[in-house]
UniProtKB/TrEMBL annotation:
InterPro entries: AB_hydrolase_1, AB_hydrolase_fold, Carboxylesterase_BioH. GO terms for molecular function: hydrolase activity. Pfam families: Abhydrolase_6. Residues 10-259 form the AB hydrolase-1 domain. Residues 276-291 have a biased composition (Low complexity). Keywords: Hydrolase. It comes from Agromyces seonyuensis. Residues 272-291 are annotated as: Disordered. This is Alpha/beta fold hydrolase. The keyword Hydrolase applies.
Length: 291
């Protein structure tokens, strides 16, 4: 992107167990570089504080992947300019779905989980999901995330005491339905809720960021996802940062990752014709998710 071009807005999509506040570090850094940054919450989370969500998680019950992705779709289509779209963890799956709909000038998946068809499931990933998946009767619920499990999933670079402080500041209940839908989509590349067209030619460029010691979505997942995207001509790249956990967006040294993500997106963003938004005019597809 030329130095004289208008800086695109940036939409940040948070992941499971988190709220928009998980992006505070990156959002402020990007705003300082001159970008408008939009950080919406998932339906039921919206702009609530983590402690408030933990006190009353009922609004998260039975929220679906399609409902979440459609909400971001509407936000993006309402912007006057096409944005860079970045997502962390489950949010990294959602931004792939949004790019698949033709949205955005560039996308960055930060330690993203895998869309439908990518079957790689490391043991650590299974362990992070076990408290939810072990109880199929809780699919419509919003289960709490224990401090011990948070230490494994997000705080594995921290002492238990420091991890507990991070839990207090940022953790919220799980949207269980999202977890079940994501897992059940994996063996369904053509019909799964999280499906994307890996061979899509006109998708915006996509960067997949990996953290070396991430327990939730370790680098094997992003490498496997990249192999699927190599079936198509659109630009998709992957980079791994050493020593980074699933808390990569706020872990010490987060500035290096944030700057790389934005610089890559700006360098590779697809051009937008004068007076255009790069977003298709059609409305988002209707939900096909069962109630």
């Amino acid at each position: 992107m030329s130095e004289n071009a208008t800086l695109p807005p940036i939409v940040l999509v948070h992941g499971l167990w988190m709220t928009p506040s998980s992006w505070d570090t990156w959002a402020e850094r990007f705003r300082a570089r001159g970008h408008e940054v939009i950080v919406p919450g998932w339906p039921g989370i919206d702009d609530r504080e983590p402690a408030d969500v933990r006190r009353d998680p009922s609004a998260l019950e039975n929220v679906s992947i399609t409902e979440i992705v459609d909400s971001y779709d509407r936000i993006i289509r309402a912007l006057p300019e096409a944005p860079i779209i970045m997502g962390h963890s489950f949010g990294g799956i959602f931004i792939q779905m949004l790019l698949d709909r033709g949205l955005g000038v560039a996308g960055v998946g930060v330690e993203p989980g895998q869309p439908a068809g990518v079957l790689t499931l490391p043991f650590s990933t299974l362990r992070t999901g076990l408290p939810i998946l072990a109880n199929p009767f809780g699919k419509a619920k919003a289960s709490p995330l224990s401090k011990a499990h948070f230490h494994y999933t997000f705080g594995n670079d921290l002492s238990r005491a420091d991890s507990d402080l991070e839990w207090e500041a940022s953790a919220v209940n799980s949207v269980n339905r999202v977890f079940f839908e994501g897992v059940l989509s994996l063996p369904q590349p053509k019909s799964g809720i999280t499906r994307v067209d890996f061979a899509k030619a006109d998708r915006a460029p996509l960067l997949l960021i990996s953290g070396e010691i991430d327990h939730v979505a370790p680098p094997a997942i992003q490498r496997a996802t990249l192999q699927h995207y190599e079936a198509g001509p659109a630009l998709v790249e992957q980079i791994e940062f050493p020593g980074r956990t699933h808390r990569i967006v706020s872990q010490e040294g987060w500035e290096e990752v944030a700057d790389y993500a934005l610089d890559w997106a700006l360098e590779h963003a697809r051009p937008v014709p004068d007076g255009a938004t790069a977003e298709p005019a059609a409305a988002p597809p209707e939900s096909t998710t069962a109630p």
